[in-house]
Amino acid sequence: MLTNYHGELELNLKAFGRYMTKKLWIVLVATVFWGIVWLMIARAAYVPMYESSSRMFIKGNSETTEESSDTLGIYTNYFIEMATSGPVINGVIKDLKLDTDYTGLMECVGIYKTSGVNTINITVRQKNAQDAQKIVCKIQEDAMELLRESFADAELVVIEEPYLSVQPVAQNHDSMVMYGAFGACVITLAVIVFCFLFDGSLKDEEDVKKCLNEEVLAVIPEQKKGKKAIPEKEAYRLLRTNLSYMQDAPKTVCVVSCDEAEKKSNTAYELACAFAENGSRVLLLDGDLRDSSLRQRFSRNKVQMGLTEILSGKYDAKKINCQTEVKNLEMLLSGNPAKDSTELLDSDCFKEFLKEVKKVYDVIILDTPSMKDSIDAAVAARQCEGTLIVIAAEKTKNQEAKDIKLQIEKIGGRILGCAVIKQR
Predict the structure, then answer these.
(1) How far are the Cα atoms of 75, 111, 257 from residue 156, in angstroms, in the given order?
(2) Closest to 370 (Cα-Cα) out of 216, 214, 264
(3) What is the DSSP letter of 53?
(4) How far apart (Å, rounded) are the C-alpha atoms in residues 337 and 231?
(5) Is the pLDDT confidence value at 305 over 50?
(6) What is the Cα–Cα distance from 326 to 310, expressed in whole angstroms?
(7) Which residues, in sequence order, are bridge partners of residue 284?
(8) Separation between Cα atoms, residue 98 and residue 92, nearest integer Å
(9) For 159, which of 55, 82, 212, 382 could close a Cys bridge (C-beta 3.0–4.6 Å)?
(10) In which band, very low, low, confident or very high, does the pLDDT at 223 lie, cut at 50, 70 and 90?
(11) Pairing, β 386-392 against β 415-423
(12) Which residues contact 247 (CB under 8 A, 6 or more apart)?
């Protein structure tokens, strides 16, 4: 996070490292994609250029000595200075009637020393091969003329005459590809870092502790389909143990979350299975009386009597079959959707119902609708001895988590801690 929950600058490096590792494939795809795009652009915008060049050196009429070597170096530097000067370049443009200016032509001209103190290379690239050859000759001629005006004994010796190019110069696309790929990599990384810093989600259990100041009772790895669920089962056993051995261990546990995407209902079911596995007689209550996930998952019939009918006084609880395939676990589904679900969960009938089932079962787990959709979960939490908050790492926003805690505390509910669902 960019700032912690007290407004101070902070960054969760561990979570950031995991986040970047997961998003690395996006960087690689973007880098390759834009590298290819820039390569295609470079090829589409390719303009054939022809090159002509000449090599020469300047000598004097005197014998070559140490002193004359210095003099020849002066001649060479002066020649290069004249060849790149405004009078020479502008004269070339005027005499050859070129459609450019000084700056434009100098971008196509290269004049530099090669091996030896007084050896010079002039290279020109143009769209027209003949223009390139003429420019080299003209620069060579005009610069030498100015040199002789200052140094009469200077003499130009041409080693390689300007040639007429037949094939265009091969364009190097590597730099275009490199710039495109590098730019894409940097921009993609910047976007990913920006998303990490400002998406406002709780990244891991450390963020949850800092945000809510509540104990994380278990970190549950989210299993993919077809994978063995051993780590997940162990996490639910740890959650069961932490709930069982806390002070004033609750007998009725309300499971809440901000959104259904946090897999709250699955957490409630697996927690109930973990208690049943330990020998406790467990009742899983489906308290989502509007759009139940448990009903969609376990109900074999389209219409099934459940908690709604019991609280409405339309059906006797003793007549409902709550048996499941899991030993020691019974489940009471919500039944038909209820428009007055909040009133039913806040009724004296529900309080009496919980009192009665507590006499029969060792543990009652109450699944509720997401707190983002209604206040039913908060109302139901008040009826239970403790509330477990389910947080989905990298999905649940820190402000949403704070709102859940605040809402439960307002109605006088007891928060037992948090279960963090974490992607592997």
Answers:
(1) 10, 15, 88
(2) 264
(3) E
(4) 35
(5) yes
(6) 24
(7) 331, 365
(8) 8
(9) 55
(10) low
(11) parallel
(12) none
Burial class (CB in 10 A: 0-12, 13-18, 19+), 171: middle
pLDDT for the residue numbered 61: 66
Amino acid at 391: I
Name the range with the highest mean pLDDT among 33-47, 193-207, 215-229, 380-394: 380-394
Residue 64's pLDDT is 44
| C-alpha to C-alpha distance for 258 and 198, rounded to whole angstroms | 19
Residues with Cβ < 8 Å from 100, sequence gap 6 or more?
A: 93
Beta strands in 257-357 (DSSP E): 282-286, 329-332
Nearest in space to 156 (alpha carbons), one of 120, 115, 114: 120
Q: Which of 385, 413, 408 is nearest to 253 (CA)?
A: 385
| 234 within 8 A of 281, measured Cβ to Cβ | no
Q: Is 250 helix (H, G, I), strand (E, B) or coil?
A: coil
- Residue whose tokens read 């990913």: 192
Q: Which amino acid appears at position 94 of this protein?
A: K
pLDDT digits (tens, 9 = 90+) for 205-219: 888 888 888 999 999
Instruction: Render the burial of 62-94: b for 16+ CB within 10 Å, e for the rest.
Output: eeeeeebeebbebbbebbbebbbeeebbebbbe
Long-range contacts of 303-310 (CB under 8 A, 24+ apart): 303/336, 304/333, 304/335, 305/335, 306/332, 306/333, 306/334, 306/335, 306/336, 307/332, 307/333, 307/334, 307/335, 308/334, 308/335, 308/336, 308/337, 308/338, 308/341, 308/344, 309/335, 309/336, 310/335, 310/353
| Spatial distance between the Cα atoms of 284 and 325, rounded to a whole number of angstroms | 13
Whole-number pLDDT of residue 324? 82
315: amino acid identity, one letter:
Y
What's the one-letter identity of residue 193? V
**DSSP assigned state of 168:** P
Can you list the positions of beta strands (E) in 15-94? 50-59
Q: What's this model's pTM, rounded to 2 decimal places?
A: 0.63
Cα–chain-centroid distance for residue 286?
37
DSSP tag of 319: G
CB proximity list for 208: less than 8 A, separation 6 or greater: 202, 214, 216, 391, 393, 401, 418, 420
Q: What is the pLDDT of residues 21-46, one digit of tens each?
A: 878 888 888 888 888 887 787 777 77
